[in-house]
Amino acid sequence: MTASMSLVCAGCGAILQPLTARPFRCPHARPGDDVDHVVRRVIDPTRWAGAGMAARASERVAGQADATNPFLRYRHRFHAHQLAVEYGLGDDGFVELVRKLDRAVAHVDGRGFRETPFERADRLSAALGFEEGGGLWVKNETGNVAGSHKGRHLGGLMLFLEVWEQLRARGAVSGGGASGADGRERPRLAIASCGNAALAAAVVARAAGWPLDVFVPPDAEPAVLERLQALGARIATCPRLPDERGDPCYLRLHEAVDAGALAFCVQGPDNGLTVEGGQTMAYEMLDRLGPVELDRIFVQVGGGALASSLAEAFAEAHAAGVLRRLPRLHPVQTASAFPLKRAHDRVVARVLGLSVDALGATGTTAAHADAIVESVPAAWARRVLREAAQHRSAFMWPWETAPHSLAHGILDDETYDWLAIVEGMLASGGWPVVVSEEDLARANTLAASETGIAVCHTGSAGLAGLLHLLDAGGTLAERLRGERVAVVFSGVRRG
Asked: What is the DSSP letter of 119?
């Protein structure tokens, strides 16, 4: 069978072997080489082949639960499914693995993986002054496994590990990857997180019977820690050490991986397959909209896995002709820490042949973004991105101070998946938005009062980005109110 999907390193261009021992990371990555080694899935556009794709995706899937399970509905777009089919498990075998995992997750968390709502928020649209032809659409992930979108990412990773174990037991895989089905001891999984990602990882790992180490900051919420302990996760608190640059939780994660753990996380450089599960959110959005196309999407960014998942899924749909144009991508960060905007400004300056200072005090604007889409050859933008990927520290480095915000879930010292997000902005005509604490508080209040959704401040930060641009007034605000705009309410308010 000819593979219609491959894994490629965005930094060095290496093509990974399908059954490499550690497919999560590029085998050429070396500490200090300054290359952005992020493994990306490259998918054949025929996997997006309209009704034919939908028909194939529904084969042997019966019942309401199966029909709304994203890992079944979109399984033909997963690397794990391709491996299962090509190395003997087959479609039936993969379907059974998904069902088994879903039942176990539902037993642990009280719910399995299901399609999440994506609807026009009529009251919120009216409150913000949207015109009838436009409006604000909300993707609501608060009812997802473990209460956030993170479950999508970790569920997709676990399915890969489950396929891997089956293939290893059949002798198709050898080397230092996952084990268990053949009687060998499983390696520990590891994740760095302050909350939602850790909870999702703990639920999925407990459901599948994998040991998990969680690296958390000293100010992690007691309720989160209590739940992690109840799920059997081993918790390590990681204070900031003198003269240590970067998130200490992330640094401890690297130490665990170096010692033999598997990165079961939402940072693309450590596990490139983490975006696959996240992409199912975009698939659902596209299916729900049908022929209607979004004009923009505002998405909160910390480490970047959510935004990169959406950006890559929309790019795949565009390449396959499902979308006539890309929605403008607007990543949202807080004024306390905005490493993505800092990196994006540097890329934009090089693309336009300017100095960073020449962009002005606010950095990239709508005019700069439009100029790139309308006037800059795509080949030149790609060349700048390739150079940026090979000189990461000139664009992305840890935030210099310890940040604090209501939206604590997006305070990552670095945007680990920055390159895919910057690429998405350049291609779509979007740009980053930096919001204040006042923006975040007002957005969360509006979200609760006008939608009734109990979303946390991190989860409603994308809405804060939209408010920020609307408050600025002028032509852009007028144009926005006539457009179809999307936000993701990514996590539930706890406590």
From this structure: E
What span, in angstroms and rounded, lies between the C-alpha atoms of 482 and 194?
A: 37
Is the confidence at residue 342, as pLDDT, over 80? yes
Spans of all domains in the chain = 114-165+174-495
> What six digits make up the tokens of 196?
């939602």
In sequence order, which residues have a C-beta less than 8 Å from that of residue 242 and are 6 or more positions away?
Answer: none
Residues 6+ positions from 73 with CB-CB distance below 8 Å: 57, 58, 61, 67, 115, 280, 283
E strand map for 1-132: 5-9, 39-43, 118-120
Give the pLDDT of residue 7: 86
The Cα–Cα gap between 439 and 412 comes to 19
Indicate the pTM of the whole model. Answer: 0.93
- Model confidence at 225, in pLDDT bands (50, 70, 90)? very high
- Percent of the chain whose pLDDT exceeds 70: 92
Distances in whole angstroms, Cα of residue 391 to Cα of each of 34, 251, 315, 410: 5, 20, 24, 24
Residue where the block lists tokens 């080694």 = 37
How buried is 243 (Cβ within 10 angstroms: 0-12 exposed, 13-18 middle, 19+ buried)? exposed
114-165+174-495 CATH, one of 3.40.50.1100, 3.40.190.10, 3.90.1150.10, 3.40.50.300: 3.40.50.1100
Which two tokens mark 457?
A: 């401040």
160/154 Cα distance (integer angstroms): 10
Write the pLDDT tens digit of every residue in 244-289. Answer: 888 899 999 999 999 999 999 999 889 989 999 999 999 999 999 9
Please report the pLDDT score of residue 138 as a whole number: 98
Q: Which two tokens stand for residue 38?
A: 């992020």
What is the pairing mode between strands 39-43 and 5-9? antiparallel
Six token digits for residue 284: 């659902």
DSSP-assigned beta bridge partners for residue 215: 192, 236
Give the pLDDT confidence score for residue 174 in this predicted structure.
59
23 falls in which pLDDT band (50, 70, 90)? Answer: low
Taking all residues of the chain, what is their mean pLDDT, rounded to a whole number?
A: 90
Angle in degrees, CA 427, 428, 431, rounded to 5: 100
